[in-house]
């Protein structure tokens, strides 16, 4: 099962890369590759938009790091998050909500998702949580654009799995972005993690080993 997931992820990334390269090559031939995304000619970021100014980036912009870019490998490891207490870790088996309300729980679960090549689900959920805290309209619009490009766009290697209904809602919301633009999508990804990944996490050796390490008495000085 694990090898199938790896191969599927590799194929997805190859398709995304080939699609992006094709679009970029086509626009270079047309001579209308944008030089700066801030000069966008429209405020629509949906994948069906005919405007090319936000779907194709210049080389300089491609190099820029996203606000929600993939963090270094170590940053999501359990051992580098706030260490959970034994009581906290044991509570995660009660419900998925317990995991998501715990900083250590989210970190350990995210590390587990990485082993299943679905870490983008947690990254998207966290990005939406940060977006909902923002009140500055200009910042909200920029974060909405970045989240769309990072997790919704079909050209992104971190695209999350959403059904057509939710994508239609997002595309409508993108016309007037707010801090709640991705609410439906966030809920769908939350439910996906809860039903699909959470049971495997609770039954994983990673969770079992964590409990054992917390149950062991500290070494004597």
TrEMBL record:
Pfam families: RGS. It comes from the Eukaryota. InterPro entries: RGS, RGS_sf, RGS_subdomain_2. Residues 95-211 form the RGS domain. Coiled coil: none annotated. PANTHER family: REGULATOR OF G PROTEIN SIGNALING (PTHR10845), REGULATOR OF G-PROTEIN SIGNALING 20-LIKE (PTHR10845:SF260). This is Regulator of G protein signaling 20. It comes from Nothobranchius furzeri (Turquoise killifish). The gene is RGS20.
């Amino acid at each position: 099962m694990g090898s199938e997931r790896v191969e599927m992820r590799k194929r997805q990334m190859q398709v995304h890369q080939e699609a992006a390269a094709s679009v970029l090559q086509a626009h270079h031939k047309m001579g209308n590759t944008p030089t700066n995304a801030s000069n966008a000619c429209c405020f629509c970021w949906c994948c069906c938009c005919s405007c090319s100014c936000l779907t194709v980036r210049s080389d300089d912009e491609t190099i820029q790091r996203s606000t929600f870019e993939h963090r270094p490998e170590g940053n999501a490891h359990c051992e580098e998050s706030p260490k959970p207490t034994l009581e906290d870790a044991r509570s995660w088996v009660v419900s998925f909500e317990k995991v998501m309300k715990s900083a250590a729980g989210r970190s350990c679960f995210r590390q587990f998702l990485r082993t299943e090549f679905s870490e983008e689900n947690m990254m998207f959920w966290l990005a939406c949580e940060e977006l909902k805290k923002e009140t500055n309209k200009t910042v909200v619009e920029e974060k909405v654009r970045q989240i769309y490009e990072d997790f919704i766009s079909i050209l992104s290697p971190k695209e999350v799995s959403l059904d057509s209904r939710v994508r239609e809602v997002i595309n409508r919301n993108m016309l007037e972005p707010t801090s709640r633009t991705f609410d439906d999508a966030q809920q769908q990804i939350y439910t996906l993690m809860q039903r699909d990944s959470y049971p495997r996490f609770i039954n994983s050796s990673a969770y079992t080993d964590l409990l054992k390490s917390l149950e062991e008495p500290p070494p004597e000085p």
